[in-house]
Amino acid sequence: MDILSEQGGLVEALNAKVYGNGTQTLVLSHGYGSDQTVWHYLLPYLACYFKVVVFDLAFSANVNPDFYNPKKYSNFDSYAHDLLCLLDQLNVKKTIYLGHSMSAMIGCIAATKRPELFESLILLGGSPRYLNAKRYYGGFQKSDLETIFKEMNQDFPTWVHNFAPKAIYVNNKTAVTEYERSLGRMKPQIALSAARTVFLSDYRRVLPQVQVPCTIIQSKKDPSVPKSVAFYMKRKLGGHARVKILETEGHFPHLTAYPLLLDVLKRALPIKYSISSNAIDP
Length: 282
Description:
The protein is α/β, with parallel strands linked by helices and 282 residues long. The protein has a single domain, classed as Rossmann fold (3-Layer(aba) Sandwich). The protein is 40% helix and 15% strand. It contains 12 helices and 7 strands. It has a 7-stranded mixed beta sheet with strand order 1-3-2-4-5-6-7, sandwiched between helices. Helix 6 (142-154) packs across helix 7 (156-168). It is globular and about 50 Å long. The chain starts with a helix and ends in a 14-residue tail after the last helix. This is AB hydrolase-1 domain-containing protein. GO terms for molecular function: hydrolase activity.
C-alpha cells in the first residue's frame, strides 16, 4: 500500500484544512521553503468572508517525506495535479486561488487544465522563469543558481541561515526567523530537489493559455522576482490581467507587510463588507 493510500488521500497527506463558513472558497497556496502557516496573519480576516482552504505542498517538512518523489515533482505539473485532486476531494466546484511564488504558476497550470474550477487567480510574487534569457529578464544568471545549488549541497544549515534574510529582504527579525525555521526543517535532499525544480523552471509558454482573470501582486523590490516580470506576465496572460505593485520590499509581503497586502486583497476579492485596516496592527 502506498503512502497516499495509507493516509487516506491528499486531504490528509497534504494536511489540508478549511477555515471559515463563507459561501465562496478561497485557496491559499504557499511558496518554496514555507508551509501553510505562512498565511497566519491573513487567515483570521479572510476566514470572516470565505471558506479558506490551506494545505502544504509536497516538499513541505510537514508532509511525510516518503510522499515526495523527486522524479514526479521535477515539474510543476505534478503540483498542479495535486491541487486539482485536492479540490476534488474537498468537493470544491469553484474557487478563487491565491498562490505565492512558485504556487502562482502552479495555479496558472491548474487553470489551463480545469478553467471552470477557477473564478480568478491572484498571483503573489510569481514568475514563469527565474533565469535570464534572450529578451527576458528573470533576475538570475545560471552561475547564480549553480552557486545556490552548490552551497545547499555542501552545507544546508549554513545556506538556510544566509538565504532566509536575503529572501525576506527587509529588516524584520520575526519574519526571518519564521522563514529560516520553516526552510531549515526541510530535508536537505528534498530542499535541493525542489529548488532545482523552481529556479530552473520555464513556464512562459503557459501564460497565453490562461484564460482566467488574474491579479498580479508584486513588491516594488523583490530579490527573487524583478518588478518587470509582473508586467511581462500581464502582457502574456491570455485572459484579463492587472498588476498591483506593493509599496514594500521583499519576497514575503504576507509576513512583512500584511496590512498593505490585505488592503490590496480587499480590492481583488469579492468581499461584500470592507475589512477595516484600522483593525490591523503590523
